[in-house]
């Protein structure tokens, strides 16, 4: 999902060895308690440490990097001599961590990149240098096929957990910060999703390239008017054979260099994982010719699964939208929300989709008077959810959903939990709408405080995410929302499919803010911990599969790993 900013919670940390060595029971019996980190005073100045708190070393590193436009410890983009030369996505290979299922059916000898015919099926052509007879990596569309395989194997709980924008380098930075232990290749260790051994687990990586970029479209007519002119594809010679490989050409990952392959956006990548088809950047479950694709959540819902979507960013941003809706343009937020909530939309004007069983996310408080990307049916007000659509979906008005929103003066976790208990007891659908400044959950930083550094001047609008105590208190965490969604879904059916998105990782990486990026990974990792504990308590790993991955990468290069370890380990 294309990005903006971030939400967090502080984990009490334990040594990673406890998880790597333990079996199913030890792996989670040693799990640290999750506590909400104290926020700095909303009036505190950027870079000012509280007298009661230790200095924030990572934050100061970030402040200095932005001010000096250079950092010895790392940089973003192809230019190694400046801190920031690229703020968008890259075409790096993306890691996939699986739990309850292996990758033997998709990697190595089974990789589509070892077959010219299968590559042509993916891209409609044979992109330059994309065939690789020795490819160990597979394709992002295989994430869809792994979900299909899980269902065919009789799994009753299938979860697609997406850390938006979290590539191998982002994961490495967060793990190093947590443990102080340096690694330079492979799965790594230190985060819960790296160390968890309560289930059969596997690790691999895939190509996230889109079908194409540069497509032109008409959102009002929901048609593609001109096919994309920039082809997808992946050259391992230039892009690397592993996620931790250096680029063979520094510009290749950003669609430049001797071979020009399009780098991905969040809608094309999410569409690949939910439908098994490659498409153009900007498409939400639409193929390159403009035809609608059916995501796996809708197929499973027809078979009796309860399906849900949870996100830390606005409810109809690209990744959560691709769980269920259709649209030629990912920025048509209000219509995509209508698809998610089972209301008539520009893509489904006559026969509305059924709507997901649970939708929990952000977007609350974001008002726009004009938004040209949403077409002529845009309604001024909340950018993601019109007042009329909110009323129509509410059970109180004979709609489909028990609705819970951020409520002034009320703790967000308690507000959500209460609504979740009521919905579960009555087997109702649940819609939760939360958020703070800029429409997302509050951004947690590496030390657990909620005080991100403003974006670097000249790199987008230099927003200061300055939260009030109410912003933090009145919103739930991603972990809170994940558990509530599971509780409600499991009461509506004995078979469930859930997408969880830690969208704040992408927002931080777009701002080249490593402090916020580490905090975002920690928030998502806390939600994954809550997920594993829920599975152990409720369905067991014999009945569950979790696929944890990112949709695409960014372009962070950690030049000095020791800088994230306090320099003494």
Biggest sheet layout: 10 strands, mixed
Q: Which range best describes the helical content: under 10%, 10-25%, 25-40%, 40-55%, 55-70% or over 70%? A: 25-40%
**Tally of helical runs:** 18
Fill in the CATH topology: Alkaline Phosphatase, subunit A
Average predicted confidence as pLDDT? 90
CATH superfamily: Alkaline Phosphatase, subunit A
Extended strand count? 20
Structural class: alpha/beta
CATH class wording = Alpha Beta
Distance between the termini: 35 Å
Spans of at least 5 consecutive residues with low confidence:
1-51
- Which strand order spans the largest sheet, edge to edge or round the barrel? 5-7-4-19-6-18-12-13-17-16
Label the overall shape.
Answer: globular
CATH architecture: 3-Layer(aba) Sandwich
Assembly of the depicted chains = single chain
Give the strand content.
5-15%
Describe this structure in words.
- With 569 residues, the chain is of the alpha/beta class.
- The chain has a single domain (10-32, 58-565), classed as 3-Layer(aba) Sandwich (Alkaline Phosphatase, subunit A).
- It has 18 helices and 20 strands.
- It has helices at residues 17-21, 24-29, 57-68, 116-123, 141-152, 168-179, 192-195, 236-239, 266-275, 296-302, 318-322, 333-340, 387-393, 412-426, 469-473, 478-492, 504-510, 514-538, and strands spanning 10-11, 34-35, 74-76, 94-99, 138-139, 157-163, 201-207, 212-213, 216-218, 223-226, 230-231, 306-314, 358-362, 367-368, 381-382, 401-405, 429-434, 496-502, 544-549, 556-558.
- The protein has a ten-stranded mixed β-sheet, sandwiched between helices. A two-stranded antiparallel ribbon has the order 1-2.
- Helix 5 packs parallel to helix 9, helix 6 packs across helix 18 and helix 17 (504-510) packs antiparallel against helix 18 (514-538).
- The radius of gyration is 22 Å and the shape is globular.
- The model is unreliable at 1-51 (pLDDT under 50).
